[in-house]
Amino acid sequence: MSMDVVEFKGVSKSFGKRRVLDRLDLHIPQGKITFILGKSGEGKSVTIKHIMGLLKPDAGQIIVDGEDIVGKTKEEFRQYRKKFGMLFQHAALFDSMTVGENVLFPLMEHHRTTMQTMLTRVEEVLAQVGLPNIQHKYPTELSTGEKKRVGLARALVTKPHIILYDEPTTGMDPLVSEMIDGLIVQMSKEEQELTSIVISHDLKAALQTADYIVFLYQGKVALAGTPAAFRAAKDPVVRQFFSGKVEGPMEFL
Amino acid sequence: MSEAVSAKKLPVAVSAVEWLGRGIIGMYAEWLYFVGFVRQVVVWTVRRPHRVGLLFTHMEFIGNQSLNIIIGAGVAVGAVFGLQIGAIFVVFRAESMMGAATGKALCQELAPLITAILITGRAGAAMTAEIATMKVNEQVDAMEAMATDPISYLVVPRVLASILIMPLLCSVFIFTGVLGSFLAGTLLFHVDEGLFVQKITTLVTSKDIWRGLSKAFVFAAIMAVICCRYGLRASGGAKGVGIATTNAVVVTLLAMLAVDVVLTYFQIMW
User: Fold this and answer.
1) Is A123 among the domain residues?
2) Most exposed residue of A134, B12, B82, B196, measured as fewest CB within 10 angstroms of its CB?
3) Strands (DSSP E) along chain B, which ranges?
4) What is the pLDDT of residues A84-132, one digit of tens each?
5) Is the pLDDT of residue A249 over 80?
6) Left (φ > 0), alpha (ψ -120 to 50) or beta: where does B2 sit?
């Protein structure tokens, strides 16, 4: 049984009158690929932003690597975030920079080493995501799939301890989706200590790729377990999500 | 009957008070946020890392790329002001004072204010639009996720570049403005060239120039801080970027005019 790298204890978060997380209790195991599933608006991205410290909960505790992060100062969060890599939903590459500069950015900011070493690492990580020799291109010259892969390279370049994927395959064709999922598994195998947290709607990918799945519904965990446990789940809300039918107990806003 | 009327009116009165209260609290919260933002800018100006490369990039954008506009506007404003004032001075046979009068007006007021207005329209609006686009496209979040403070990376180099460049652009404006006035004076009012220059050097003092340059410095800080702040607070896609840019320009210009009144008062009185 692996340790938990992230733990939410009674975390609540509201935006205006809408409560997105409602006393959420959540556990994410270390060194595994965890998928957080749920329909749109169920607080998946909000959960990931809480882990990064980009949002502050209204109530509850968030424990990462054994320490409560809720009371951290801005400066402490800056140090804390160095252990993460994050792939954003739309890659969030800096338009004014080339691909090479984008991937180099986190190294330039935080790693005291020679430029040659950093450039070698950039080449290495771009090759790892299947995009060698595109350092000179700008993000506007790339396809959506290529942007995602560059975003993944940027997230991996500092060899983070935890990597967060915000809907990595949304809007992708099946081949690129398969490739991204393959990369998530490959990174996890190459780095035994790497914890991957993936937010997704992609049930098929979750069942194929995940070691552990968390299903969010109405701001709480409706079900958490292995893919096998999900396949065997009797919970009507989970079954409805699996079947993809509109009719059922799941409420739509 | 009267009770029924007052019962109907009461909710309106209550909602008016509520509306006013919300407005005051909102303004107070906004002011607190702004003070905190300025504090962060000051802190990150002193703290490492010092982003010299970015500073020069923004200086080039604000300064070099605005130079043509400043030169053109300077010549035009100087010539127009010279014409206006020359038309009055000619009545008193004091055309030779045109240069001195234009020089003083340019140094103390016209050059810093018009330079700041032009730079706000060109560079300030671009600052807001660029940062706001980054904000709505999650690029600012990505920066924070990579443990880089957006104020350190996006705001401080722009603020420093603005306050270094604006006084230089103001100087260019003064020079070209005087040149415009010189052309108007010598070509249209047949003022003697030597007399024109002599009056300027006698009556326009270094104090006048420093007053103008200090205003340019303050206006630059106001512009950069407000424009970056609106950029970082943008939300809601392309429409949000547009709203942020418009608000940034309007608030910057109003703030500059308000501060100009205060600065002029202290400069004249002290």
Assistant:
1) no
2) B12
3) none
4) 899 988 889 999 899 999 999 999 988 778 889 999 999 999 998 888 8
5) no
6) alpha
Mutation to test the B interface, candidates A89, A95, A148, most B Cβ within 10 Å = A95
In chain B, positions 115-154, which contact chain A (CB-CB < 8 Å)?
A: 130, 133-134, 137-139, 141-142, 144-149
Q: By C-alpha distance, which of B226, B253, B246 is closest to B37?
A: B226
Angle between the N-to-C axes of helices B193-203 and B98-105, in degrees from 0 to 180, rounded to the nearest 10 = 40
Identify the band that residue B9 occupies on the pLDDT scale cut at 50, 70 and 90: low
Residue A168 belongs to some domain of the structure: yes
Distance from CA of B78 to the nearest CA of A (A): 38
Cβ neighbours of B146 in A, within 8 Å? 81, 86, 105-106, 109-110, 154
d(CA A228, CA B236): 40
Q: How many domains does chain A have?
A: 1
At which residue do the structure tokens 């509520």 appear?
B18
Rounded Cα–Cα distance for residues B207 and B198 (Å): 17
Q: Which residues contact B1 (CB under 8 A, 6 or more apart)?
A: none
B57 at A interface, C-beta within 8 A? no
Residue A94: list chain B partners with CB under 8 A. 134, 139, 142
Q: Does ipTM surpass 0.90 in this model?
A: no
Please report, for the domain that includes residue A178, its CATH number. 3.40.50.300
Q: Residue holding tokens 């308000």?
A: B258
Measure the CA–CA gap between A234 and A232, rounded to whole angstroms. 7
A86/B contact by beta carbon, under 8 A: yes
Domain around A80: 4-93+148-243
In a domain, A114, yes or no: no
How far is the C-alpha of B17 from the C-alpha of A57, rounded, in Å? 31
A90 vs B144: CB contact, 8 Å cut-off? no
Residue pLDDT, tens place only, B56-108: 999 999 998 889 999 999 999 999 998 988 888 888 888 888 888 888 899 98
Is residue A98 in some structural domain?
Answer: no
Structure tokens at A195: 């914890």
Max Cα separation, chain A? 59
